[in-house]
Amino acid sequence: LAQCMKDHPGIGWVRGDKFLQSTTTSEASMHISEIQNTYTNVAMCSTFTFDYSNNNGEFTIGTGEYSFVTRWSKASDTSIYALKDKVAGIARIKGPIELTKSLSCALDFSSRLRTPNIGDVIIWKNKSGKYAATKIIDIKDDTRGADHDELTCEYIIYK
What we know:
159 residues, 8% helix
């Protein structure tokens, strides 16, 4: 490396300790742009799409006592993990199923983790005792051919 520096002098050949000492804020510039994503939808009934590899896999639906912090993690391109880390409980309804305006079925909230497939529904129970349903519409997985991770859900919050 020393011989190469002598044979090919240039501005790039600087000792690391010299560069750090001599570089000031005005000399060094960084060009970083942050992607601004919204990980919340306050509507009582809507859809959302987000990259579940960001924001700790969390997407919040609703507001106030009708707020649910849904949490997701990679499983595959046809299923995804839903976690109850930020809510009181989660249950799974196997699809295909349509979301309805009322919720009347027996639900099992005994697990911390559920693995819904596309078409399945996750029922979320928040700490205020309210319920919401998210139907898995689409899953993209960057380890299975997609260019990024992405989850699309339809949801309804029950009053």
